Amino acid sequence: MASDFWLIAGLGNPGKKYENTRHNLGFMCADVLASRYGINMSDHKGLAMFGKGIMSLDGKTAKFFLAKPLTYMNESGNAISSICSYYSVSPEKVLIIHDDMDLDFGRIKVKSGGSAGGHNGIKSIDRSLSTNEYARVRLGVGHSQRAGDARKNTIDWVLGGFNSQQKSLLSEFLADGADAAETVVINGLSKAQERFNGR
Prior knowledge:
single chain, 199 residues, alpha/beta, globular
């Protein structure tokens, strides 16, 4: 029987080396949600840091699991599919929060389905769930402007840190990302798109 819990997962890479990098925006946003709802995260089968809570917004509530995969970005799907299988969470109740180079820093887009857009974490989840029909909160990190080897520049960019202007905006950006996740869960995808996609 399908669970009535949502699974919200923020993507990133574990370890000090990656802590404050663009690729870890999903982890950071999950931390905001953990703090908002007093969620203590513990280990799920060595695959993810994991906890559960009850979300409350606009007079409504929803039960949710919160996860930060420990599998490294490219294998995120292993953690997501393990949790979905263990707790009987169906893909339509999965919400993934991740960084996105196709959006300028500070922009948020909410969507369900569609292309992975070159994001290896999303590609891995698509494979592991055998569907791309799950909700996503995309957090913009922009593109590297450097000339030269595009692949190397992309890797250096997503694994790089934020500049001083971005750091000053980061906590508000992450709070907006957490708000977007709440809106999807409580009020539905289209309401979240109306509120966040036009900014």
